[in-house]
């Protein structure tokens, strides 16, 4: 009996203990702290991240989670601001020719790399060529940006402060790609000790542990407030959260809704968006999704509001087509909307010949818990219309090779990120696009896309992009779900945390509030 | 001497076989390093160029021979995930894992000897029963559940340590050594329990032997009998068992590192598996194989030295 | 000698029985469908309608523990069957016939046995990928050596005994001797190692699922639930406690029963 007693005691003491520690934590959704408090200079903070860096070389890194932190170290000719505009960075000014065939950049004077060298036109030309795959000896590890490599005909430097890009065809949307990092041309230790021009410089990196940066005191622009920022790397959001509760992290993005609700009073929660098109992507090329009725049935069967309620406390922006409201003027909010309608879904399935039920497999990259969770909710919802869905979790690498490249799947839940060029997010739906992993094919789409891309007339361009979104929605190319809410815990001692319409964590704007110090 | 040479020979053969088999297995899996490393926007041509660069287009045995030659010189290639040398990655992870393993072994030795002997004075007496119960529970509890319980009690209820507050050994040595105590306890408890049980049973069995009765008969005190006669005889299998246990401790730390978010070898292994970072996985597998096989060989040799009957 | 009441056995069997009952009932009936989500009942504390509360999707934790227990049970049984089946065959054949086959297989066996089972299973899963069936395969293979070793050493002893010689004299074939004479005689030993193997299988399955290398979501698994519960340790410790104690009850029960046999 002693064993039983021991167990009972254990259980009992835990339960009492837990009653004692259940503190009153509130939703903490206080008004944003961006404007409040006077900024103080100095201080060190710890930021929790859950994705490890894949490289310190900005041209080799492909993970969004890496770009997000490297943003503090590197800059391109231009860089995005929080409103989605492009502001001059290494370039002082730029001119896009009337026919959109030539981009001319004038470099800022005396921009210094973190190693003390001045940025020269050679560095800029080298960096652009490296990104565009135009160097004579190209490192195969560098991911060539296909938008750059296809558009750029020639990069020249007519004088010490001017860089000219000549294009093959008119393109007004190249600016977002010219955020590609400017790095020194004769420096080969980028992967171990990166050198850029940004407001912070690199201090140290230990894989699985931390990435540390400090203030760049020679920065040409507005100086960062903080002296030092440590990005601490966690195996999972849960692990980071435990430490957040213990109070050793100052900022933690990608909080789940549950975590947000149990956060301590030390933090406020900032709500932004992830700038992702999250969807249940359907392979239009294979049964049963080659039938538009089945795709539409799925759109009706999935209750997107419930997904939002379940995963993010109702936060997030529901989308009906393949673009997010973040792309302000190009976003079309008047596309076909598939309301949640079980009966309609059943009827459409029956019309398509699947009245007796349907079995499908949803392949999900298992490293993205958010997508895994979304898929779990979807599986439950599909049950109600007689669809038996099975989740097949795969490693990211398998997802890339089998689903994304091999297109060997039925359905998948994933979020697509994109830069601020409107073409970036929809170009994959061209029937011939190499990354058209949903196998979408519509001649009208292809021709409209060509118009949108080539157009130098803003009005025409906008109309074309809106038309493209309409087509995607009508054809139910996939079940578009949402642009997920991004919840970030920010210590109440800090101010200035700012959301961008792209995937970045800008530390140069963060500061300790004067009164708190 | 001949025995040692023979053992060392079979050790090397074993290691070569293990490294080849794991190399073969990892090269057969779909979803290769080039795809993983270049991400979503890469074209087929980019991927092929990188494959060529990484030598992934060559036959497996050529790749293996190449790998083995470099590995012998301490070069395990470059991680496809981190774009850093594998040996550097692995070496940086070692302090945490080794400290954890050493801590655990120390705990096992310090706890299981006294605990094992505690009940042997009066087998099946009250003390013995208590120890038996404790060791039964200890053996049954999964290490990761124990880790979670410890986190809950000491981290949340008592607030004695910072949950997940691992610090690197260079950053803060004191904090590093303090933090690893609880994880070490989580790794050690099941093994402690097994060891305690083992020692207890061995001692009880020895005590029934004739020579113990003889020693007692000669008027030796119970303590003296225990220390001078029984323990000497129990020592040998116990030491062997400890050496064998080192492997389990290593395995246990893989799981426990995950629970306490310790950036050790285990976490690197799990992370690398999900990133398909096979140069790293391969290196860790071989490294752990080395550790395990060498420990076993040492145990064999020690056993043979201590007991000439074993050949 | 007076027969004492054997508490070890009683408690051991009681614990196993309780978990088995949970698992068996879980196969046919759970208070709520284990995967059914409910937005309105997310993260609830234990109550009369939800014994162990609900998880982040509003799923009933008690129902999930029941299903998780049956999954764990089934996987452990399969693993032991695979391991014991192949292991017994290999052990018996190599010991009985000896020769080069014995030498080679024992070499392989020693190498495998030297590795901690979790480490070996992780390597297998790294190659074949996670999932219930893959996990059974991986653990099954990992468990072969221990059975091979036990059976082999037993058969080596038994085959020198008189009854085997007699059977041979009577003209019985090798296979017949092995199956009908020797195997029944090593049953007691096999039974103990089956129980030990079962305990190890339960622990390994939980460990692998905890690491995310076993049973895949959304299907409940005790190990996986523990890893999910870790993030809620602050506000909902019962979430971790429910699956954790279930595993503990099962392994403790098995431990008590085997320790009595040993």
Radius of gyration of chain B: 24 Å
Oligomer: heterotrimer
The residue ranges of chain B in which pLDDT falls below 50 over 5 or more consecutive positions are none
The top-level CATH class of the largest domain in chain B is Mainly Alpha
Q: Report the strand count of chain C.
A: 0
Principal-axis shape of chain B equals globular
Ranges of chain C where pLDDT stays below 50 over 5 or more residues in a row are none
Beta fraction of the residues of chain C?
under 5%
Strand portion of chain B, in percent?
A: under 5%
Q: Roughly how many Å apart are the termini of chain B?
A: 12 Å
Order of helices and strands of chain C: HHHHHHHHHH
Give the name of the CATH superfamily of the largest domain in chain B. MetI-like
Assign a percent range to the helix content of chain B.
over 70%
Q: What is the CATH architecture assignment of the largest domain in chain B?
A: Orthogonal Bundle
Largest sheet of chain B: none
Could you say what the CATH topology of the largest domain in chain B is called?
A: MetI-like fold
Number of alpha- plus pi-helical segments of chain C: 10
Structure description:
The complex is a heterotrimer of chains A (517), B (311) and C (262). Chain A is an alpha+beta fold and 517 residues long. Chain A is 29% helix and 23% strand. Chain A folds into two domains: 7-196 and 486-513, Alpha-Beta Complex (Dipeptide-binding Protein, domain 1), CATH 3.90.76; 277-483, Dipeptide-binding Protein, domain 3. Chain A has helices at residues 2-21, 64-70, 121-132, 146-151, 237-246, 257-261, 292-301, 304-312, 342-351, 369-383, 396-405, 422-426, 443-454, 458-474; strands at 39-40, 44-49, 78-80, 86-88, 91-96, 102-107, 152-159, 162-167, 200-206, 210-215, 228-233, 251-255, 267-273, 276-282, 317-318, 358-365, 387-394, 411-417, 478-483, 485-491, 494-495, 511-513. In chain A, the strands form six sheets. Chain A has a six-stranded mixed sheet with strand order 15-19-14-18-16-17. A four-stranded mixed sheet of chain A has the order 2-11-10-9. Chain A is globular, with a radius of gyration of 25 Å. With 311 residues, chain B is mostly helical. Chain B is 77% helix and 0% strand. Chain B folds into two domains: 2-72, no CATH class; 86-306, MetI-like (MetI-like fold). In chain B, helix 10 crosses helix 11. Chain B has helices at 2-28, 33-38, 44-54, 60-72, 86-118, 126-140, 143-157, 173-179, 181-207, 210-217, 222-260, 265-274, 278-306. The longest helix of chain C is centred in the first third of the chain and has 37 residues, at 61-97. Chain C is elongated. In chain C, 56% of the residues are buried. Chains in contact: A-B, A-C, B-C. Chains A and B meet through helix 1, helix 5 and helix 11 of A and helix 2, helix 3, helix 5, helix 6 and helix 7 of B.
């Amino acid at each position: 009996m002693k064993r039983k007693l021991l167990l009972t005691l254990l259980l009992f003491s835990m339960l009492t203990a837990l009653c004692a520690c259940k503190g009153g934590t509130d939703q903490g959704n206080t008004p944003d702290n961006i404007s409040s408090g006077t900024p103080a200079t100095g201080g060190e903070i710890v930021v929790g991240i859950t994705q490890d860096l894949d490289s310190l070389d900005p041209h080799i890194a492909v993970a969004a989670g890496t770009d997000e932190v490297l943003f503090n170290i590197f800059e391109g000719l231009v860089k995005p601001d929080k409103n989605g505009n492009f502001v001059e960075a290494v370039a002082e000014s730029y001119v896009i020719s009337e026919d959109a065939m030539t981009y001319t950049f004038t470099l800022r004077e005396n921009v210094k790399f973190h190693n003390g060298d001045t940025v020269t036109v050679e560095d800029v030309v080298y960096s652009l060529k490296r990104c565009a795959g135009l160097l004579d000896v190209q490192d195969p590890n560098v991911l060539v940006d296909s938008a750059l490599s296809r558009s750029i005909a020639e990069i020249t430097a007519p004088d010490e402060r001017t860089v000219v890009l000549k294009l093959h065809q008119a393109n007004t949307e190249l600016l977002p790609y010219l955020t590609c990092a400017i790095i020194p041309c004769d420096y080969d230790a980028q992967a171990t000790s990166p050198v850029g021009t940004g407001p912070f410089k690199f201090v140290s990196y230990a894989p699985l542990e931390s990435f540390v940066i400090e203030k760049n005191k020679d920065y040409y622009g507005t100086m960062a407030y903080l002296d030092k920022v440590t990005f601490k790397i966690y195996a999972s959001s849960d692990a980071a959260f435990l430490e957040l509760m213990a109070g050793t992290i100052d900022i933690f993005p990608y909080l789940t809704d549950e975590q947000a609700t149990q956060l301590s009073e030390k933090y406020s929660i900032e709500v932004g968006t992830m700038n992702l098109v999250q969807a249940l992507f359907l392979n239009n090329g294979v049964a049963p999704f080659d039938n538009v009725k089945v795709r539409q049935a799925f759109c009706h069967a999935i209750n997107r509001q419930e997904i939002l309620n379940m995963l993010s406390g109702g936060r997030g922006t529901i989308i009906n087509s393949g673009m997010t409201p973040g792309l302000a003027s190009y976003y079309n909010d008047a596309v076909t909307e598939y309301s949640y309608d079980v009966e309609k879904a059943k009827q459409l399935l029956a019309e398509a010949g699947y009245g007796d039920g349907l079995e499908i497999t949803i392949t999900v990259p298992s490293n993205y818990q958010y997508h895994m969770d979304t898929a779990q909710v979807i599986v439950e919802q599909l049950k109600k219309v007689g669809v038996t869905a099975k989740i097949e979790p795969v490693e990211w690498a398998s997802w890339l090779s089998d689903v994304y490249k091999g297109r060997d799947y039925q359905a998948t839940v994933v979020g697509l990120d994109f830069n601020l060029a409107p073409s970036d997010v929809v170009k994959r739906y061209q029937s011939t696009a190499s990354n058209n992993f949903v196998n979408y094919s519509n001649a009208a789409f292809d021709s409209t896309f060509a118009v949108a891309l080539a157009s130098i007339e803003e009005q025409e361009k906008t109309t074309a992009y809106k038309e493209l979104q309409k087509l995607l929605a009508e054809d139910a190319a996939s079940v578009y779900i949402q642009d997920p809410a991004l919840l970030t815990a920010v210590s109440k001692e800090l101010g200035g945390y700012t959301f961008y319409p792209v995937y970045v964590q800008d530390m140069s704007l963060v500061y300790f509030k004067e009164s708190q110090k | 001497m001949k025995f040692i040479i023979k053992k060392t020979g079979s050790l090397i053969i074993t290691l070569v076989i293990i490294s080849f088999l794991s190399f073969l297995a990892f090269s057969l899996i779909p979803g290769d390093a080039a795809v993983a490393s270049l991400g979503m926007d890469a074209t087929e041509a980019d991927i092929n160029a990188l494959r060529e660069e990484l030598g992934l287009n060559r036959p497996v045995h050529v790749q293996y021979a190449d790998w083995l030659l470099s590995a012998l010189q301490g070069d395990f290639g470059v991680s496809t995930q981190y774009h850093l040398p594998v040996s550097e990655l692995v070496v940086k992870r070692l302090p945490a894992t080794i400290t954890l393993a050493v801590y655990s072994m120390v705990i096992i030795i310090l706890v299981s000897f006294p605990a094992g002997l505690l009940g042997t004075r009066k087998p099946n007496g009250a003390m013995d029963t208590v120890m038996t119960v404790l060791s039964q529970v200890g053996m049954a509890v999964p290490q990761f559940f124990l880790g979670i319980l410890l986190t809950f009690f000491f981290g949340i209820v008592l607030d004695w340590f910072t949950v997940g507050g691992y610090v690197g050994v260079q950053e803060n040595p004191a904090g590093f050594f303090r933090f690893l105590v609880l994880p070490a306890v989580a790794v050690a408890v099941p093994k402690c329990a097994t060891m305690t049980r083992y020692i207890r049973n061995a001692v009880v069995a020895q005590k029934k032997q004739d020579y113990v009765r003889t020693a007692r008969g000669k008027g030796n005190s119970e303590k003296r009998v225990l220390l001078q006669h029984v323990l000497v005889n129990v020592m040998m299998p116990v030491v062997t068992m400890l050496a064998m246990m080192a492997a389990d401790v290593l395995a246990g730390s893989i799981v426990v590192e995950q629970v306490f978010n310790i950036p050790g070898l285990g976490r690197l292994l799990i992370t690398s598996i999900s990133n398909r970072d096979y140069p790293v996985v391969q290196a860790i597998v071989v490294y752990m194989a080395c550790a395990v096989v060498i420990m076993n060989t040492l145990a064999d040799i020690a056993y043979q030295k201590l007991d000439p009957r074993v050949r | 000698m007076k027969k004492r009441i054997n508490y070890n056995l009683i408690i051991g069997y009681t614990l196993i029985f309780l978990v088995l009952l949970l698992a068996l009932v879980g196969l046919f009936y759970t208070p709520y469908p284990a995967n059914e989500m409910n937005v309105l009942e997310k993260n609830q504390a234990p109550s009369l309608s939800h014994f162990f509360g609900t998880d982040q999707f509003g799923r009933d934790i008690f129902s999930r523990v029941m299903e998780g227990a049956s999954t764990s049970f089934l996987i452990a049984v399969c693993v032991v069957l695979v391991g014991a089946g192949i292991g017994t065959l290999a052990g018996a054949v190599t010991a009985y016939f000896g020769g080069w086959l014995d030498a080679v297989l024992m070499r392989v066996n020693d190498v495998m046995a030297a590795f901690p089972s979790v480490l070996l299973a992780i390597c297998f899963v790294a190659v074949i990928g996670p999932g219930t069936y893959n996990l059974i395969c991986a653990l099954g293979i990992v468990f072969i050596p221990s059975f091979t070793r036990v059976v082999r050493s037993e058969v080596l002893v038994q085959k020198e005994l008189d009854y085997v010689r007699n059977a041979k004299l009577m003209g019985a074939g090798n296979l017949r001797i092995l199956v009908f004479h020797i195997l029944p005689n090593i049953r007691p030993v096999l039974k103990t190692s089956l129980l030990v193997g079962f305990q190890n299988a339960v622990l390994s399955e939980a460990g692998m699922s905890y690491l995310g290398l076993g049973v895949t979501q959304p299907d409940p698994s005790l190990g996986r639930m523990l890893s999910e519960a870790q993030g809620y340790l602050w506000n909902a410790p019962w979430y971790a406690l429910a699956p954790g104690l279930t595993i503990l009850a099962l392994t403790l029960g098995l431990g008590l029963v085997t320790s009595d046999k040993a």
